[in-house]
Amino acid sequence: MGACSPDLSFKVGPDLSRDVELTLRNARIPIDAKAGLPILILDVDCLRVTVGDRQVGYAVHLQLNLSQFVLIEDTKQRVVAMTWQTTDGMTCQTDSCANDIGNSAKNMTDEFINDFLKANQSK
What is the pLDDT of residues 86-114, one digit of tens each? Predict the structure, then answer.
């Protein structure tokens, strides 16, 4: 997770990675954490929302992107490029934010899986 408060990161961080990997495996999308590239990255950034001195929730930005090697036709050079991305933003109440982030991450992962399977279907 990106820049979220330690209390929220503790509730969300490990579960998000596990849930995303499990969802990809269930969709039969291969995962090799040691391969380096391609790489699917979920970044979550949070800002506390306060009213006076009372914290009421968080403003959250999520970004899921795929980076991989691509070939530049003109120069025949292989470079790393982001080839797929989706984002989501929300505000959530302090007590429900971990759940809301998890639901958003699941929806974004499902969107990636649909696009991946569509792009890699047998012709």
Answer: 999 999 998 888 899 999 999 999 999 99
